[in-house]
Write a structure and sequence with these properties.
Elements: H1 26-39, H2 43-54, H3 59-71, H4 79-91, H5 95-107, H6 115-127, H7 132-143, H8 153-163, H9 167-179, H10 183-196, H11 199-208, H12 215-233
Helix pairs in contact: 1-2, 2-3, 3-4, 4-5, 5-6, 6-7, 7-8, 8-9, 9-10, 9-11, 10-12, 11-12
Length: 234
């Protein structure tokens, strides 16, 4: 079973305040305000902030404008426009833009489907600090869609994602351990996913662990279901 990844609640590539006392740049402020608008369910206002920020040519802002077009935040969904902004930001070295562009190539949205190009972009994204990319590399390896990439390599990628603190890395690593007859490490990683996860992770945990006979796994599934229902009701 290959998981379709959902995102973390915070959007890919949006800026976060640093611990430094230095004043934030205007672009960083605009990106933060755009993220706040998204969090408050105001996509049109978020789009305005990202569009203004992108006029600076800042790669982070171009990436977030691409996300707006990819997702349809305050603007009609347009994967072709999204790919153009991601391409520009990725060329300027933005790791999240590389990740987002890889997603488009993997799905064939806005660009011709190209698994090898997606793989190369996920590699570059991981090299630029995006740990989530390791998880996607694992899914590509697991799928067997690149003949030269052994499916066994998936576990190495999932472990790298997990060691970087990625919840989907925890879950996929545990899923592989369980299917390979290694229940003890599987329980360890499923537990980490439960402790650090969010709504979509909880739902995936409940689904994957349905019908398990080990009482420890049943307990994780039950807790995940409870947390999913609470999170969904908010």
């Amino acid at each position: 079973m290959t998981l379709v990844l959902a995102e973390r609640p915070k959007e890919r590539g949006a800026s976060s305040p640093s611990a430094s006392s230095a004043p934030l740049s205007p672009v960083t402020m605009q990106l933060l305000l755009g993220q706040i608008c998204l969090d408050k369910g105001k996509p049109a206002e978020a789009f305005s902030m990202f569009e203004v920020a992108s006029r600076s040519g800042d790669a982070r802002a171009l990436n977030m404008l691409g996300r707006a077009y990819e997702r349809g935040w305050g603007v009609p969904r347009n994967p072709v426009a999204a790919s153009a902004y991601f391409t520009q930001a990725a060329a300027d070295g933005d790791g999240w833009a590389m990740f987002n562009l890889a997603d488009l190539y993997l799905a064939g949205e806005g660009v011709p489907q190209d698994i090898r190009k997606a793989y190369a972009l996920y590699i570059s994204s991981a090299q630029n600090g995006v740990s989530k990319a390791f998880n996607m590399l694992g899914l590509i390896a697991e799928s067997g869609r690149l003949p030269e990439l052994e499916p066994e390599k998936a576990q190495d990628f999932f472990l790298a994602a997990a060691e970087c603190g990625d919840c989907w890395g925890y879950l996929n690593l545990a899923r592989n351990d369980l299917s390979s007859g290694r229940p003890e490490p599987a329980i360890k990683w499923f537990s980490r996913a439960l402790e650090e996860g969010f709504c979509d992770v909880f739902k995936a945990l409940e689904t994957i662990l349905q019908g398990q006979t080990d009482p420890r796994l049943r307990a994780i599934a039950e807790q995940a279901g409870q947390r999913w229902r609470v999170a969904s009701a908010r």
